[in-house]
Structure prediction request, 586 residues.
Amino acid sequence: MPTITINGVACEFAKGERVLDIANRCGVEIPQYCYHPGLSVPAQCRICLAEIHAPNARNENKLEPMMGGKLLPTCATDASDGMVVFADNPKSVANQKAVMEYLLINHPLDCPVCDQAGECFLQDYSYKYGRGTSRFEETKVKQPKKDLGPNVFIYSDRCIMCTRCVRFTREVPGTGEIMIDGRGNRSEIDVFPGVPLDNDLSANVVDLCPVGALLDKDFLFAQRVWLLKSTATLDGLTSSGDNVWADHNEGRVHRFRPRENMDTNTWWITDEVRYAWKHVHSDARLAEPMRRERRELIETDWQRAIAQMLEGIRDGDGTLAVLISPMLACEEAYALAKLARTLDPNALLALGAVPFDGDDVAYTNPAAGRPFVKRAEKAPNARGVQRVLDALGGDTADFAGFLNRLGHGSGRSDIGAVVLTGNYASRWATPDLLGSLGGKHVTLIDTLTSELVEHADVVLPSCTWLEKAGTFENVDNRIQAFDRAIVPLGESKPEGQIALDALAVLAGDDLGRPRATYAMMIVDDGPGQVPAATASVATPLTEPFDAADVRREMAADTPALEVFVTDIAEPVRATKPQPDAPIVEL
Ligand code: SF4
Ligand code: FES
Prediction:
């Protein structure tokens, strides 16, 4: 394998890799602004320059400085065997200091009020590579704040003209709304007149901006980034399986960012996925169990709600039918199916409605070598739930088949009790479903309130995917696990936990014993997070639902589900850089 030495560290590389790529992969730091692996390489910012020596074949392979010893952009220089790169010699360091001084000449130095502070490359490199003081005595050029489109503001005077945003809109969505207006120190990033930054991927420019110039309107002044804790999760809205960081603090999600994964979303996410967490904190969330008594729905506790659900199912005149939503994790589908078949061995298991919106839209993604696709299928786990149902066999159906069995169209039905799961990001009950529920005992397990509540005998509040762990199978049949990000809202519980609790009741377990370990287990432990003593979470009636345990059980019980142990992509864990100064508690 060919080898290159960067700042004294020997690194193996593959043909075609650039020096900066290799340094990034091997953990050798070379400062960089304009370079991004998903975009073209203009070598614009000049901070990655280094002195590079290479063997000269015409001089017995003796090591000689390339370009007569001039500094070369490592981001645009292909590696060759035996190269030696000096990004930390006096000449390279002098260039780094000069670039930093130049970039800060007109910068407003408004870090205390800047959203990017704490994750800003200008700030970090200023400490590491900049001068301690400024020699600039003239008046700074002031530039405006501008509204670029529905999701993005620009604070122009923070811009360092790296052109990442310009290249992104041209190279990935292909819409090219962003341009450079003006020349020299009067250059400004702007949109073309009458062409707002309004494409499906628009807010990726906020992640790309290495400084605080491009800002997400939704996150503006919402949180200081050092208070945020990042959890590796997935797109919970569409079938893409896009990898995402959920950034949250004190039980509230504040933003989503793409999590690089070359097998799924590469470096990007759509705006649809980016803001798909909004309903998690909606006022329309179901937060308390309810049961119907003398035609009125009344709030109740979990024990009574589950007892009434089981009683209603047992007393139902006919077969049990369970609708398992494609918004649920695979482990929950399995737990609910197991509950259903325990209650009624002939129970009908059906996959919930899979919503579609238009067609898939493919965007060019030249650096990845394949398109980035916005998915029309608006459910994250239809394939995973179907896989579980297929493996369990017996009486199964799709949503249309489920409606038919409820008597839609014919008025004839063999179903006596229905368990409906939803967990969609918006209202999902169709008139056909609402019209087919009459005469059956209905248990609704859902996150958002809807017309279905009025048809239900028992309502059990469930958690969104950010409040629990599990696995989703995406459109390419990739099975990916995700972690829980925040504590469940109010009394809500994961659907899998509800199934486990109900199974325990059937097995004659003593109910209502609070499990202190559960509260401890699910409370965030990072700085600024919900302390255990004040966390308000619904304790399970039985053992806590552990998605990893259920996956092992699935594989052990059903050979067709062994993939949930053998072929699962685990989420990465966030690693936060350690502060270089001790934190003083105030
Ligand atoms: S706005 Fe940000 S991404 Fe765009 S050129 Fe300026 S610094 Fe680069
Ligand atoms: S990162 Fe190489 S010139 Fe900007």
